[in-house]
Amino acid sequence: MVNKVEICGVNTSKLPVLTAAEMKQLFQELRAGDPSARAKLINGNLRLVLSVIQRFTNRGEYVDDLFQIGCIGLIKAIDNFDLNQNVKFSTYAVPMIIGEIRRYLRDNNPIRVSRSLRDVAYKALQVRDNLANRYGREPSVTEIAKELDMPREEVVFALDSIQEPISLFEPIYHDGGDPIFVMDQISDEKNSDSSWLEGIAIRDAIHKLSEREKLILTLRFFEGKTQMEVAEEIGISQAQVSRLEKAALGHMRKYI
User: Fold this and answer.
1) DSSP string, 179-226
2) Mean pLDDT along residues 101-128
3) I want to staple 225 with a disulfide (CB 3.0 to 4.6 A). Which of 48, 163, 229, 244 is the partner?
């Protein structure tokens, strides 16, 4: 999909590239009121969108959708770009394209966040961008909170709530050998030597039970069925299931 030639009906292999002089001329024409200059600027910067969306192609989203969202960011950048600022258009446009795509991904996140909390987060992101332009550096959360006149904790909570979930198998480091994944950096207190040995002991104890006792414990504790459901499935009364279950657990305790 990343190397796909056609995206949204656009032949990406034939996208034009504008020179710095052409860009400046088109922006001057656009500010003078020429609508065709806007279309030429959009078409001449689609390669920029294409390069940005490649950062997001491993998230399971359709490339066509990401391309369209990226184009919205590009259009916003073109409409708001100031020629008087001593900055390249691509430097200004890339963060806006990335921001538009991230907003799309957040809004389509399977983890639901309340609208009010999301609004606070979006305001914080907007303030962060404004402060970054003002100071020429990434602002701290404390500075963002002060600008919003909100407690720092609320800003942190809001920003954390819209963070995109990542896979445990997301590689975080690769030195040419085996990659290190997120899951490699997470400890599991339950997966200790004692619990591992206990699991072996439980399996050995289950093997010493009768077939009926194995079936009842499997239905009850591995499939999560109630005693009544187990009784209906194997054709005995609920009282008998309860009695057999207790007996089976008692037998297992002898072997563990």
Assistant:
1) PEEGGGG---TTS-HHHHHHHHHHHHHHHTS-HHHHHHHIIIIIS---
2) 78
3) 229
